[in-house]
Specification:
Elements lengths: L5 E2 L2 E2 L5 H20 L3 H15 L3 H16 L6 H8 L1 H4 L4 H15 L13 H23 L13 H6 L2 H7 L6 H11 L1
Antiparallel strand pairs: 1-2
Length: about 190
């Protein structure tokens, strides 16, 4: 069996009617969101996502996708590493701290101009590519879920996002009522790479 092509570091995705319909809905949501002028943090995240999918540099891909996640988790200065793990539980569940810790550590290596494998015994190109796919997929999920659920937009305004993260975990889960199926993604990645 042939492995699928990779386009710019991302598994090739067939464009069908559903993908086109989703793109149209996201475009319309972006127009509406833009008119509110209350979500500059989220728009910066969208710009980082676009930078990530268009760059050929895999280090910049990962770094930009992490920034998308940070746009949603709004970490406190000095607590970013800890909150990157704890706050992403809302989106992917509590069982993936080690993956998120590794992603954030690599992001920090990139940010501070270290070799990406610094602090890791055996980080090879395939493992790094898997982490990029995971990070991109989480970022894509966050943006799609957010844009398609206008009832949560008010919680992620520039003036309200801090309050959102002060809510109880139960209340946050009630508001963000979905989880990204990272287990299925991991199974798919193992088939692809």
């Amino acid at each position: 069996m042939l492995k699928p092509e990779f386009v710019n570091g991302t598994p090739f995705r067939r464009i069908d009617r559903t993908v086109i319909d989703d793109a149209i809905q996201n475009y319309l949501a972006l127009i509406q969101l833009s008119s509110l002028k209350k979500h500059s943090r989220i728009f910066r995240g969208i710009n980082y996502f676009l930078d990530g999918i268009t760059t050929d540099d895999w280090k910049n891909k990962l770094h930009n996708y992490v920034r998308v996640i940070e746009a949603f988790i709004n970490p406190e200065i000095g607590n970013t590493q800890k909150q990157f793990k704890s706050r992403t539980e809302l989106f992917i569940g509590p069982s993936f701290h080690s993956i998120m810790e590794k992603i954030y550590a690599i992001r920090s290596n990139i940010e501070h101009v270290h070799e990406i494998q610094r602090g890791f015994d055996n980080l090879n190109a395939t493992q790094f590519q898997k982490l990029i796919i995971i990070t991109q997929s989480i970022s894509r999920y966050l943006l799609n879920f957010f844009l398609n659920n206008k009832n949560i937009w008010n919680y992620f305004e520039d003036s309200t996002i801090d309050e959102f993260w002060k809510l109880s975990p139960e209340k946050r889960m009630e508001i963000w009522s979905d989880n990204f199926d990272i287990n299925s993604l991991l199974e798919e990645i193992d088939k692809l790479i």
